[in-house]
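Why does residue order matter? Because the sequence determines the fold. Keep that principle in mind as you read this record.
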Amino acid sequence: MSPSDPQDYYRLLGLDPGAGPGEIKKAYKRLAARYHPDRCPGDTGARVRFHQLADAYRVLSDPDSRARYDRARRYARPSITDAPAAGAGWRDKLAAFADSYRKEAGPRPRRGRDLLYRLRLDFTDAVRGGSFAVNLPPARQVRVQVPPDTADGCRLIVSGQGDPGLHGGAPGDLLVEVEIRPHPLFRRQGLDLIFAWPVPLPVALLGGEVIVPTLQGSGRLHVPPGTCSGQVLRVRQQGLPAPDKSRAGDLLVSVDVELPVGWGDAVREQVERLAHALDDHHFPRTAAARRRHLP
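Structure:
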């Protein structure tokens, strides 16, 4: 328990052994805030340091515990003159003293284990956020608050909902890892939602409107005349809301021009008349491809 020992509680808190109660409390609060698991998610080293700080404060904030600790700390430090002669004897004395200290102080409080739970959410639930039930063994239910627009793989911490501690120790935390099921239609790009949607050939040729799905239900997509397959059209303000609700993304609709099926003779005659009325002038991309790539 030398000053270079990581379990030297004064050194851990950055204090001199003569620090007063107010200094101890101030140092602990400052360091505990820095290494708190909520502030350092996924950082195992920070979690270990946080619990070391809690142990240090528990011992040093209580006058009786601090007095016993100070005696053990002084007892552990051999002087220069007697260290060579003493050999390892002082370590044996320290071990005996520490054993006596543990018996006097009683079982050391131990923090409970953290629990990991995977919460599977639909795409729309993850976008909107909300309170969701988590069922833990043996028969315990915890409500988890999921923020809006939570990303896949995000880990949420619910403090104090892990396993109970031992001998008066604090309970562990519940770590909730969010897994988002892919949406059957939408794919996100920032705040925008992208998807493909069929547009009948007459609407693509002549222009018009088609009904398309949105997260809220449905909306109208304006299709300009001469729209091609693969062309992306936009429906404003029907995407995902920004976290601060100041704006919303758009729907980006990739057009899939649908050709008619089940033709009858009357339709075939109309199409043939249309084909005779059209020439290369009406299909500039086809004409350009021929000029560029065909002999």
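Residues 228 and 294 are 23 Å apart (CA to CA).
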